[in-house]
Every structure is written in structure tokens, then in C-alpha cells.
Design a protein that fits this description.
It comes from Octadecabacter arcticus 238. This is SnoaL-like domain-containing protein. The chain is α+β, with helices and mostly antiparallel strands and 116 residues long. A six-stranded mixed sheet has the order 2-1-6-5-4-3.
Length: 116
């Protein structure tokens, strides 16, 4: 399992301590996270885990799946599916910088950027 797979597996964890432990294992100390719903750049595992916890609390029974990734050097482009318990699905595109096996920076976008 890659750091990206592990990170997104934490999105479904309702337990705060378990979610933080998972995220802490795959991000660097100064990791930054930014997406349209984060209302600014989050820094550090605790801030990121707290934000990610909103999904687990609001989307009970949902899963988050890494659909596709491409790697270029230390930068990864990932398509992520947010699959709700009622069958609805939303996708997102993330650009993820790595330092070895740790994530240093993530920037997410709603959708995949494909024309409809």
C-alpha cells in the first residue's frame, strides 16, 4: 500500500486517534494540505487529521478509493473517488509531493478537470 492509499484510507476512520495515527505515519511533520473545502492551507498531521475527520463524521458508511495515480519524480497525480453509502460518488484530483515514502504536500481539486 502506498502513502497515498494509506492516507485516503484514513478518511473513513471514525476514531480520531486511529485516523491521526494513520495520517501521522504517512506525512512529514510540516506537511501541507489544501483543497476547495479546507478553507485555506492546513499544516501538520493533527490539523490534517482533524479536517479529514469531518468526512468520517458527515459521510457515515462512505469509502474513499484511490482510482488512478501517475508519478513523475517525487510528484504524484491521483484521482480519488468519494463513494457515499447511498451510491452517490464524487471524484477529486490531487497533486501530491513526496519525500521518500512520506507525503510533504497535497493540493486537491473537485472533479477530475475533464470537460463535461
Amino acid at each position: 500500500m502506498t502513502a497515498t492509499d494509506t492516507f485516503f484510507s484514513a478518511w473513513s476512520k471514525a476514531d480520531d486517534a486511529a485516523r491521526l495515527a494513520i495520517i501521522r505515519d504517512v506525512v512529514t511533520d510540516g506537511c501541507t494540505y489544501d483543497d476547495p473545502r479546507s478553507q485555506g492551507i492546513l499544516t501538520g498531521d493533527a490539523a490534517i487529521a482533524d479536517y479529514v475527520g469531518n468526512f468520517a463524521r458527515m459521510a457515515v458508511g462512505a469509502s474513499v478509493v484511490v482510482v488512478k495515480t501517475d508519478l513523475r519524480g517525487a510528484c504524484e497525480r491521483a484521482t480519488i473517488a468519494f463513494r457515499m453509502a447511498d451510491g452517490m460518488e464524487q471524484t477529486g484530483k490531487y497533486f501530491i509531493d513526496h519525500d521518500g515514502d512520506k507525503i510533504t504536500r497535497m493540493v486537491g481539486f473537485v472533479g477530475t478537470g475533464a470537460d463535461s
